Request: fold
Amino acid sequence: MQNPELDAKIVARGKDFFSAISGEKPSLFNKGAWMGKVMDWSMQNEQFKIQMFRFVDAFPSLTNPRLLTDHIREYFGEEKDMPPVLSTGARLAGMLGPLGGAVLNKVISANIHEMARQFIVGENTVEAVRKMEKLRKDGFAAVVDVLGEATLSEEEAEVYVGTCLEVLDALNVEQKGWNDLAGQGGVPGLDWGHAPKVNISVKPTALYCLANPQDFEGSVEAILSRVRRICAKVVEIGGFLCIDMETHRFKDITLEVFRRLKMEYRDYPHLGVVLQAYLKETDKDVADLLAWAKARDSQISIRLVKGAYWDYETIRAKQMGWQIPVWSIKAETDAAYERQARMILENHEVCHFGCASHNIRTISAVLEMADELHVPKKRYEFQVLYGMAEPVRKGILKVAGRIRLYCPYGDMVPGMGYLVRRLLENTANESFLRLSFAEEPRIERLLEDPEKSAERERGERAAKPENPVAAPGGMPCFENEPMADFTRADYRAAFPAAIARLRATPDKTYPLFIDGQEVATTDLIPTVNPAKPSEVLGRICQAGIPEVAKAIEAAKAAFPAWRDTEPGERAQYLLKAARIARRRVFELSAWQVLEIGKQWDQAYADVGEAIDFLEYYAREMIRLGAPQRLGKVPGESNRYFYEPKGPAAVIAPWNFPLAISAGMVSAAIVTGNPVIYKPSNLTGIIGHHLVEIFGEAGLPAGVFNYVPGRGSVIGDFLVDHPDIALIAFTGSMDVGLRIVERAAKVHPGQRHVKKIISEMGGKNAIIIDDDADLDEAVPHVLYSAFGFQGQKCSACSRVIVLDAVYDRFTERLVKAAKAYRIGPSEDPANTMGAVADAVARKSILAYCALGKQEGKLLYESPVPQGEGYWVPLTIIGGITPQHRLAQEEIFGPVLAIMRAKDFDQAIEWANSTSFALTGGIFSRSPDHLARARRDFRVGNLYINRNITGAQVERQPFGGSRMSGVGTKAGGPDYLLHFMDPRVVTENTMRKGFAPMEADDDMLK
Ligand SMILES: Cc1cc2nc3c(=O)[nH]c(=O)nc-3n(C[C@H](O)[C@H](O)[C@H](O)COP(=O)(O)OP(=O)(O)OC[C@H]3O[C@@H](n4cnc5c(N)ncnc54)[C@H](O)[C@@H]3O)c2cc1C
Reply:
């Protein structure tokens, strides 16, 4: 809270400011122009705003008249139904009717270009320099921001650096002819006597395409290697360099880049970084950075902004299960800004301050605090975005003199992303500019001390009654386990530490677990690190037929008591197991890195999913466990309830070694079916962790039995056994179909038909529509195809690209793939690791060879030399549905690209295999998306995102046709497959009298 005296000064200054600009409006809100009308409509009509901004986002990809016409109709309806703001211009052109479409296209295109131009200083250097010269004549300095598409490849990063260097050279030539902006003395040749005339901002993620907090050091060094080159040029021409701040994910990387760069240019004062007041961590970051600069006696500069990604940060944190990193009340951000601005101003001897805001209260607070602290004028300046808040910038020019406009420069196409951000910012309900200029301003409120506003809002929120929702049984509702947050240093440190701990323990022999007892056998199979097969991690005892028979016997014996255990009690074991797994999350994840070659994030996600299954199925069983009354007829009670089927064989794969195992096992157990669990021998150690987890959870003997063994030895015996009531299998189609066939046969002594739950393979496709956002599509396709080396049944193995964008997409995809690094997954710098084993390797390499015959090799990555089951990342073009590469599951990092002539063909090809597991589409056409929802027949369809990583409860997972029997793991129907329903009907009327039940339909 500001002290009352200072606050009064701030408010008085703010009022003066408002009256000085009274009657003026930023051009953005000028309803006389198309843009002002669009803003006005958007603020009145949320649906129009969404459609309009989405259309603007898609606009750059609408490169022919047909696309444009279709999209205008799809987004806004037929011309007669269109909001007048869109059609009036064309109508005024007087040519609607048969020619209307073409005219409408022209008018709308011209208007959107005009709108983008509002925020972009120029599309080329000549235009940008001309505009900046004009701005200087009006007294405004500039900072240039080079717009670019998202950087997806090393080549694109180089283009970005090249453009920055080019702009700097051009500005250097021009600056020689520029007069200094007037200030109070100081150094001639500098604006205001102290500020370089050439000033550039750079975006760290434009400098390295694989920037990722998981690989913190690699990201810092890669960005640094490029920003260093820009910095050298800036220093050479005596300019100013600021490193922009993007999303929270990259914040600590950016700060580290800045610190290292600053140490290389210790004595150069004109280097700065952006901090965002809306982040809760920023108070600490400002304090740390100031202390760091002081300790080194080095001059830095901080541009303080509020932050441009508030919605993104909030949504992403919610999706990932993380704490929201930004303040949730707008005034909290404003208050944080004033706190942090004060800290910077108090340290003005080491830190130059760039106050970047359009908010009159914020600006007034900075001016008053600077006065109070006697901060010399040369130690702070004001900054606003080009194209916004013209009255505010004029006002600042008048009172402070030192104002700089942030001037994006470059192509219109990437400019559209920037335009959409600005449109959103200015139409947001709490935007200061909207509240001040687009509505009747409530000046007292706008100038109020934000601490006071925040307190009031907190009070109002607290007074709102909460509506707590509980899961059945009064439990807290299910929530997915949070994903690993590698922005946290403790998470980054935990992986190498856990891996080192595992390595430090001598390799162990893992016994079987039958009827509550460990059982050792002499037949051992070593389990190894696929990136280094000579590294034996442990030895797995192999079950033979006698051991499996014993396990089935134990399960059979345990069945009656377990069946009759209350569902709620059975659920408690799962909840306990979830707590144990959560406690051991890094150890369990580290095993996945070593035993099957998962990258850190993939390994952690697998453990998280295992916990989700335990938590979710526990709640589901409580829900399903309560008998339901059917019908409401008095004198009759119909009770519908479920009972388990009997001993369950669970046969699990190696690719999600904990998650799928825990899912199938826990579903069987919680529904009352004792389990005989056969993990893959490739992940026997991870499988054994279920013994430890369920053991610690205290499951009764015989309910969970662990019998790893060779499929060829025990597989058929387990499947054929007459006492096995159900089989839950996940794996290849061949094995799955074999199980289905064998299990259909009734063996002597068998008294039931076996239930099969079989999840098999996929040949999953992603369609790239002709209006797709390639900045999004390329990285998501790469992740879907090559994450965990493509060894997921959900992985993308075909990408079907519409002819119009085929060349552009493929070129960017291949360049982006070239940045992928292959090597041991324990090193987070590697994007791809080794494949599962020698058999997998041989099969994948055979498909690579086949791909080269059937299609055209577009890219084959290098692989590490020496031991390890390495296969190259492979991209094959020219594939059509007739090719084997388009039909057979490969289960490795091989991606086939198919060129479709139109959307109909793309859908037809997508459905042209016998599988139906996952699929995806990148499109911004509402019509095409509707078609895909209806006609792209897969179990899990993903729109405009990657196609792997289904989340329990949110995205129940599983396919149909040859992908499986459609049981949808992690969904509301899954447990039903493990039980039989029963109905008990009782005539409750005796001698004409029946007890009444509350919901009897007696008198209606
Ligand atoms: C020169 C310059 C450079 C910039 N560089 C960057 C940069 O590198 N990185 C970056 O992220 N942004 C950058 N920006 C954009 C900047 O973040 C936004 O323009 C700014 O947040 C708008 O703030 P304001 O004070 O002008 O407006 P105000 O209307 O007072 O504030 C709007 C801001 O409040 C915050 N907010 C909105 N709703 C809530 C809520 N419910 N709870 C909490 N906070 C909320 C958001 O940050 C929002 O942008 C830059 C801006 C300028 C002028």
User: Anything to note?
Assistant: The first strand starts at residue 141 and ends at 146. DSSP finds 33 helices and 30 strands in the chain. Residues 600-625 form the longest helix (26 residues). The mean pLDDT is 94.
